[in-house]
Specification:
Elements (H helix, E strand, L loop, with lengths): L5 H12 L5 H6 L5 H4 L3 H15 L13 H14 L2
Helix pairs in contact: 1-4
Length: about 80
């Protein structure tokens, strides 16, 4: 399985949470909180759901509790790589 990139996360944030963030912004400040970026808990839940549908793999419960994009990417990518 492939890893989720910041580009893919930015697209998921737009599609599932309605929040527009550039991949460059996620790269430059990976530890900016989702709340600061405008993603609330329902938005993050939507992002997790989209990933589960796209990859056919359940994401860990902790994914919807991640506070930053970097924390989210680390957790999700570790999960995807473990299921590969």
């Amino acid at each position: 399985m492939s890893k989720i990139t910041v580009e893919e996360l930015a697209a998921l944030m737009k599609r599932a949470a309605g929040v527009t963030v550039s991949p460059q912004q996620l790269n430059d400040k990976p530890d900016t909180g989702f709340d600061v970026l405008g993603v609330d808990s329902l938005g993050l839940l939507g992002i997790v759901g989209e990933l589960e549908n796209e990859h056919g793999t359940p994401m860990p419960v902790d994914a919807e509790r991640c506070k930053t994009p970097q924390q989210f990417l680390n957790l999700v990518n570790n999960t995807l790589m473990a299921g590969a």
